[in-house]
Design goal:
The protein is α+β, with helices and mostly antiparallel strands. The chain has two helices and eleven strands. Strands 2, 3, 6, 10 and 11 form a five-stranded mixed beta sheet that branches. A four-stranded antiparallel beta sheet has the order 5-4-8-9, with no helix packed on it. Strand 2 and strand 3 form a beta hairpin.
């Protein structure tokens, strides 16, 4: 009796791995990579976070898991949701690019030193297939209000 159960378990694991099971993940993923530039130059460090948003009138908490990727010294990033570099959930996202922590631990955490290049969150859409999403950030001019 134990032998058939073992075979069934192995078969289930095999089928799951062939069909790219992700522990009950019901959201389609697509690979996402790109570069982050600040005032035309590659951002050398930081974190990119893609947070799925609801695209329907009915707002729900079931929009899926966010994806993130570390910014490399050349400004490039690749997003991870469940497994390394697997991408982000297909659909609309709010994108936040975080700067490294301020050097002075006593400095207040403001948008100017929290978000890379002082920018507010952006909007991007992840499509099916490979996505190359380049993020162009600019430092807000002093005295101007952000959107």
């Amino acid at each position: 009796m134990l032998l058939p159960l073992r075979h069934a378990a192995l078969l289930a694991v095999g089928i799951c791995s062939l069909s790219a099971c992700r522990g009950g993940n019901e959201f389609a993923l697509a690979p996402v990579s790109g570069t982050v530039n600040c005032n035309g130059a590659p951002l050398k460090a930081g974190l990119v976070v893609f947070v799925p948003v609801s695209t329907t009138e009915e707002k729900t908490n079931d929009t899926g898991r966010s994806a993130s990727g570390m910014i490399q010294p050349d400004g490039t990033f690749q997003l991870t949701t469940y497994a390394s570099n697997d991408g982000a959930i297909v659909g609309a996202h709010t994108v936040q690019v975080f700067a490294p922590a301020p050097v002075d631990d006593d400095a207040p955490l403001t948008d100017a030193n929290r978000y890379a290049c002082g920018n507010a969150p952006l909007q991007q859409t992840v499509a099916e297939g490979d996505n190359i999403i380049d993020l162009e950030l600019t430092t807000p001019k002093p005295g101007t209000k952000r959107r």
